[in-house]
C-alpha cells in the first residue's frame, strides 16, 4: 500500500515541520532577547541620569521633588515593558498556534486521503462506513476550529483586561505615592 517514495515524502515533510517549529521557537527567543537588551539599555540610561540627579540634590525638599519626578516615568516604563513582553508572548503563541492548526488540518486531509485509498481496495458496501468516518472527521475538525477560535478570543480578551487592570492599578498606586510624598514634603517644610 505504501511505496518507498511515500515514506521518503513523509520523512521530508517531518523534517520541514521540525525546521519550521525550530524557526518559530528561535524567533520567539530572539524577540525576548532583543526586548531584554532594550530594557537593559534603558535601565542603564535611567540609572545614570538618576545618579546624576541625586548627586545634584542639596536638601530633603530637593530629594522629595526628585522622587516625585521619577516615580511616574518609572511606572510608565514598567507598564511599557509589561506590554512589550505581552506582545512578544502573544506573537510567539500565535505562531505556534498557527503551526498546530496547520498540523491538525494536514492530519485531517491525510486521514481523508487514506480513507479514500482504503475505499478503493475495500469490499463493496463499505462506502457507507467510510462516509460515516469522513463525516465524523469533518465534524471533529469543525468542532476543533470552533473551540480554537473561542479559546483564542477568550484568552486574548482576558489578557487585555489583565493588562488594563494592571495599568490602572499601577497608575493609582503611583498617584497615592505622589500624594504621600507631597504630604511628607509639606510636613518637612
Explain this structure to me?
By secondary structure, the protein is mainly alpha-helical. 93% of the residues lie in helices and 0% in strands. It is built from 3 helices and no strands. α1 packs antiparallel against α2 and α2 (60-121) packs antiparallel against α3. The mean pLDDT is 80.
Helix % is over 70%
Can you summarize the main beta sheet? none
User: How many strands?
Assistant: 0
User: Spans with pLDDT under 50 lasting ≥5 residues?
Assistant: none
SSE sequence, one letter per element: HHH
Mean pLDDT across the residues is 80
How much beta, percentage-wise?
A: under 5%
Protein structure class: mainly alpha
Query: What is the global morphology?
Result: elongated
How many helical stretches?
3
Q: In angstroms, what is the radius of gyration?
A: 29 Å
> What's the end-to-end separation, in Å?
91 Å
List the SSEs and their pairings.
Layout: H1 4-55, H2 60-121, H3 127-188
Comma- or semicolon-separated keywords:
elongated, 189 residues, mainly alpha
Amino acid at each position: 500500500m505504501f511505496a518507498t517514495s511515500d515514506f521518503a515524502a513523509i520523512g521530508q515533510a517531518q523534517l520541514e515541520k521540525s525546521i519550521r517549529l525550530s524557526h518559530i521557537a528561535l524567533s520567539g527567543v530572539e524577540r525576548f532577547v532583543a526586548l531584554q537588551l532594550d530594557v537593559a539599555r534603558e535601565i542603564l540610561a535611567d540609572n545614570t541620569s538618576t545618579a546624576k540627579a541625586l548627586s545634584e540634590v542639596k536638601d530633603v525638599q530637593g530629594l522629595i521633588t526628585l522622587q516625585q519626578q521619577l516615580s511616574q516615568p518609572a511606572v510608565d516604563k514598567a507598564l511599557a515593558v509589561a506590554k512589550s513582553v505581552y506582545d512578544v508572548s502573544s506573537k510567539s503563541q500565535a505562531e505556534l498556534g498557527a503551526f498546530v492548526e496547520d498540523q491538525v488540518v494536514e492530519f485531517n486531509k491525510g486521514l481523508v486521503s487514506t480513507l479514500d485509498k482504503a475505499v478503493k481496495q475495500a469490499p463493496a458496501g463499505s462506502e457507507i462506513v467510510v462516509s460515516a468516518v469522513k463525516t465524523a472527521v469533518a465534524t471533529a475538525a469543525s468542532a476543533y476550529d470552533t473551540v480554537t477560535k473561542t479559546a483564542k478570543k477568550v484568552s486574548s480578551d482576558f489578557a487585555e483586561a489583565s493588562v488594563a487592570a494592571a495599568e490602572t492599578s499601577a497608575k493609582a498606586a503611583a498617584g497615592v505615592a505622589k500624594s504621600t510624598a507631597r504630604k511628607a514634603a509639606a510636613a518637612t517644610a
